[in-house]
């Protein structure tokens, strides 16, 4: 059976502490109790897509340790197919160290661990096994770039499309950007790519127009201002609802997962962005990168 959505990305164990404010360099602060949860941009987006009605196949790697087993259990129970996830013996499961301030802003440091062992050749084989015409590949950049690039090239060859969340921000080849449909970036990532200011909706529209020359379509997320999108024939802005912000950690991943699920369901880019904005607004209302279990 051909998968409608494949998520290629990272899987981490998140260690989160809520603090009154973020520490200054060299400063030690006392925080609230430690919260341990499953995370990683790939795993977060896969679960967000599943919550949005998709049945995603997850491609990634975890260590042969307790954290890895817990991650696979969490993904599987959340509606994600983990049968193709690699379990490696030479690296631990990835870890993210997160501090969240009272106003919802976060800082994150990631130790990649097994995520750095995602193998490009295995990714290609896995995609050929489950992908096909119409398959959406959703990827991020917490795994080796070679794996993301070969994944995008393979899904294009099979007649599918790539949604690339260019996060964390890094240089990527023009050949990969050209396959993105859409490229999903936030304000800072859009600025890194274009050199243009992206501090308002109008500035984001200009940046999206510039990026449209380098990829098939683009979405720029704007936090509380929603998102701007552009493809080769149209462009628009989707406003976000006003909500109480608890933690912004999972907002971008919730957006990307819901957007990819909508595209896999055959919806237009504008409709997919609308679903993504709604998911992102919901995500900031809980602590942690993934939604609480119902």
UniProtKB/TrEMBL annotation:
Q: Which residues cross the membrane?
A: none
The cofactor(s) it depends on are: Mg(2+)
Q: How is its activity regulated?
A: Activated by a monovalent cation that binds near, but not in, the active site. The most likely occupant of the site in vivo is potassium. Ion binding induces a conformational change that may alter substrate affinity.
Functionally, this protein is described as follows: Catalyzes the phosphorylation of ribose at O-5 in a reaction requiring ATP and magnesium. The resulting D-ribose-5-phosphate can then be used either for sythesis of nucleotides, histidine, and tryptophan, or as a component of the pentose phosphate pathway.
Give the similarity note. Belongs to the carbohydrate kinase PfkB family. Ribokinase subfamily.
Chain residues that bind ATP: 186, 221-226, 252-253
Molecular-function GO term, any one:
ribokinase activity
According to the lineage, what is the superkingdom? Bacteria
Q: How does it assemble?
A: Homodimer.
PANTHER family in UniProt: RIBOKINASE (PTHR10584:SF166), SUGAR KINASE (PTHR10584)
Q: What class of enzyme is it?
A: transferase
Keyword Calcium recorded: no
Q: How is the cofactor bound?
A: Requires a divalent cation, most likely magnesium in vivo, as an electrophilic catalyst to aid phosphoryl group transfer. It is the chelate of the metal and the nucleotide that is the actual substrate.
Which parts of the sequence bind K(+)?
247, 249, 283, 286, 288
E.C. number, please? 2.7.1.15
What's the source species for this entry?
Microcella frigidaquae
Q: Which InterPro entries match?
A: Carboh/pur_kinase_PfkB_CS (IPR002173), PfkB_dom (IPR011611), Ribo/fructo_kinase (IPR002139), Ribokinase (IPR011877), Ribokinase-like (IPR029056)
Major place of residence? cytoplasm
Question: What are the GO BP annotations of this UniProt entry?
Answer: D-ribose catabolic process
Q: Which residues form the active site?
A: 253
Give the Carbohydrate kinase PfkB domain ranges: 4-292
Which gene name does the record give? Answer: rbsK
Residues where substrate binds? 12-14, 40-44, 142, 253
UniProt subcellular location: Cytoplasm
Q: What is this protein called?
A: Ribokinase
Pfam families given for it? PfkB
The record's annotation in PROSITE patterns points to: PFKB_KINASES_2
Which UniProt keyword terms apply here?
A: ATP-binding, Carbohydrate metabolism, Cytoplasm, Kinase, Magnesium, Metal-binding, Nucleotide-binding, Potassium, Transferase
